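Worked Example 4.2. Consider the chain below.
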Amino acid sequence: MPDPVVRKLGETFKKVTDGPASQKVLANFDLAYDYKDRVQLEKEIHAEYELIKEYLNKMGVKKEGEGKGHLKRLRKNRRPPEGSAT
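Applying the procedure from the previous section yields the following structure tokens:
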């Protein structure tokens, strides 16, 4: 998306979330206001992704298709939904 469009959308989202209607919804549901712009979100999402990736690796979780291939066998042997043309 072109930068001017991204910038305008960011300004608009910020204005709306700062508005009284959004603040009222947050208060009604007892939610904290935590607006982040695009740059902040990109940094946080990347950091959180790396943290979760490291945790899953330590836990021994494998990507789909790694390991003994049991998921591939399950998919291969599953029946099609009733009424589907196969």
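The mean pLDDT is 85. Helices lie at 3-18, 20-28, 38-59, 70-77. Compare this with Example 4.1 before moving on.
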